[in-house]
Amino acid sequence: MDDDLTTLEQVLRDRGAEVPHLQQAPPRMLVRARRRVVRNAVASAVAAGIVIVGASAGLAGLRPSTSDLGGSPTPTPSTSACNAGDLQATANLDGAAGSLVGSIDVANRGDRTCTLEGVPSVTLTGPSGSLLSLEVQHDDAQWQADRAPRPAGWPVVTLPPGSVASIRIGLSNVCPELDGPPRWTIDLTDGRGSLEVAGAGAIPTCNGAAEPSTLDVGPFEPGGEG
What we know:
Blueprint: H1 2-18, H2 27-62, E1 80-81, E2 87-96, E3 99-108, E4 114-117, E5 121-125, E6 135-138, H3 142-145, E7 156-159, E8 163-172, E9 183-187, E10 194-198, E11 214-225
Parallel strand pairs: 1-4, 2-10, 6-11
Antiparallel strand pairs: 2-3, 3-8, 4-7, 5-9, 8-11, 9-10
């Protein structure tokens, strides 16, 4: 048995010695391998370039271009609050049951668009120069009293040059009786000045000395063209 194993081992060694040992790969195989490596490297570089170009294009699409902005950006003109120097106030009041009712119309006589908003401060000064003691109450706008549609943009009233805003007014029971028409003043507040109201020549009536004197003032609202 041992002799048989020894003989088999010798045969295997002899067969193994007959197989040639390759010390290096054949030249053709090396050339093909190099070409394969070069092709893979080029393909990887091209793919990376496509990814970079695509990403750059995506970022460029997120940034607004000058064509999207119409060339160079154009600043949006701002509209600021009206100043007294741009305005002219005129009374439009009628007598009714011993009271004065109607409106004060405020026209934009300036050369720029401006805005008015809220309930202004309205005061009356008697012929003697003393400020009349009145209970001032905030009233609805005329469009609200008429149940009309809400004006666009209200409570802000935008006044282009030549347009008019209106203030609803009601004056009742001015006591003691005045011997001449009072002077009406609108204070725009916030340092924007005061307006003297023209055309308010009516003399209010004292209906009862025991009752308070009242002034109802509505907010600015659109009033048409002046």
